[in-house]
Amino acid sequence: MQKKQHGKLYLFMGVLLVIVAVLGIFFKSVQPENEAHKEAVRLAKKYAHLKKEDAFYRYSRDKTFYTVFGTNADNQKIYAIVSKNGKKINIYGQEDGISAETAKKAVRKRQEVKKITNVGMGMKGKTPVWEVTYLNAYGNLCYDIIAFKNGDIIKTIQNI
């Protein structure tokens, strides 16, 4: 009888240990992203006078960028695109280009999209761009790079 109770206790402790380990790994893995988010917001407040954050985007192609979308001190909607190292920040008004929603619509118009998996904003060279990743009708991962200023599709990669 006591062996059964010890067995259940060991099983419970083992399961608990696995859960704690998995949670620890998860929180450790998202920590760099959280730090990047905080730093991008800090820089957007400093250089773009961000007052209110509405969205955060991550873009990783040739280089990594973090973009903060929100309202500045003059109540204008802005995008602050911050390089991964934080040394370069590009600021654009919302009226200077297309929104994330418009970028998604542009992809849906051109492609057979089963599901959009992510939208990010960054820089391709000196051009601000949206990256829309999605699953096509066959379930394959694809992405389109769309120019922020005019909505033109710059690059499409199908069936990754």
TrEMBL record:
Pfam families: PepSY, TseB. Keywords: Membrane, Transmembrane, Transmembrane helix. It comes from the Bacteria. The chain crosses the membrane at residues 9-27. Residues 39-82 form the Cell wall elongation regulator TseB-like domain. Residues 98-156 form the PepSY domain. This is Uncharacterized protein. It comes from Ligilactobacillus ruminis ATCC 25644.
